[in-house]
């Protein structure tokens, strides 16, 4: 019997097909980009004229964004968009990696803010097409993360509380969809609270302008605990749950809780947990205590306490469960890094990396808007970029002409072909944003 490998070894390979599209599913996101009018929006908002590499910013931002949607994490990965007929499904001219590097280095603080304004307006336009919360309650999770780097040539990078060299951006996500609502790059040694008040004020104004008309609730971990931030939330009429550190005064308040006030909650088989509440400096303080039981009890015999302040009403057990869902922000940030290009920051210049962050956020959100408006992801499921990319974006295709109509020929029996066609139909039915 002939070995299987003998047949495999006989397969020749040539890279000479000009009509192949490497990631034909980018047509879905590109269709949404056209409906949102993003290239015109970037050209009208980001003013880099007179700076080297600053001409036509729209096509350069979209080249970076589409490369990230396709899985790119470095500037050089934009070359995948220049292969075969891939650029034909994007709706804009694809720029070379060297041009993109020069473009990013042209950014200053003001230009980064202009690109941030593009993100805010894109959010408003996408929500106007049906991707937003409308009058429903909106829960926002705010956190910071570490974008780790290597070497000493990264401007603004530093060692923070994690003792890892990198940047320390603020990220705000919509809990229901995982989309990033606001992001700001900060130096690596930044305190978690640094810039939080201003960030919250901008965030609330942004989601209101975008069309969020219902109740707003924000969740924070203990790193953001600040009376100034709480006062800002109360002034803006935003509900909150905010973790607190177990400092002496908090410990004293928790110690005063009567044993009969603790309510058991569902926990792991090898542990137990209880919830109670008290008042701390005039605010509601909800406390969860946990410990191990059974064979592992000797490792963790005493109660450990975790507390947060809140202005929300409801039974403490329910409010505690709601606050613990803040952990889903980690899923969104992981997807931003692994799925939309933020696992790497490419430049030695701080503002170039700040612009890269905003491009990654735009790519991250476009994937979610396409999944929502194209009904790719069920309403009760979070969008996972790797899943969407595997099923819809990375499908190969061949661009041919049928009776004068450009047609993408995709693989026969592609498992998600019907959903792809339906999503494309839904996205094409969206009304374009008026110029």
Termini separation:
67 Å
By oligomeric state, this entry counts as single chain
The order of strands across the largest sheet is 7-6-2-8-9-13-12-11-10
Question: For the CA atoms, what is the radius of gyration?
Answer: 25 Å
* Mean pLDDT over all positions: 91
Which percent bin holds the helix content?
25-40%
- Sheet-strand content, in percent, reads 15-25%
Structural class: alpha+beta
Number of strand segments: 15
H/E element sequence: HEHHHHHEEEEEEHEHEHEEEEHHHHEEH
Q: In terms of per-residue confidence, which ranges show pLDDT below 50 for 5 or more consecutive residues?
A: none
The number of helical elements comes to 14
Largest sheet: 9 strands, mixed
| Broad shape | globular
Key features of this structure:
single chain, 435 residues, nine-stranded mixed β-sheet, 39% helix, 18% strand
Notes on the protein architecture:
The radius of gyration is 25 Å and the shape is globular. Helix content is 39%, strand content 18%. Strand 10 (263-265) and strand 11 (271-280) form a beta hairpin. The strands form 3 sheets. It has a 9-stranded mixed sheet, sandwiched between helices. The mean pLDDT is 91. The protein has helices spanning 4-9, 26-36, 38-45, 57-69, 97-105, 109-131, 196-210, 227-236, 248-255, 316-324, 329-339, 350-373, 385-393, 417-428, and strands spanning 20-21, 138-144, 147-148, 158-159, 165-167, 170-174, 180-184, 216-220, 239-244, 263-265, 271-280, 283-292, 304-310, 397-402, 405-409. The protein is built from 14 helices and 15 strands. The termini are far apart. It has 435 residues and is of the alpha+beta class.
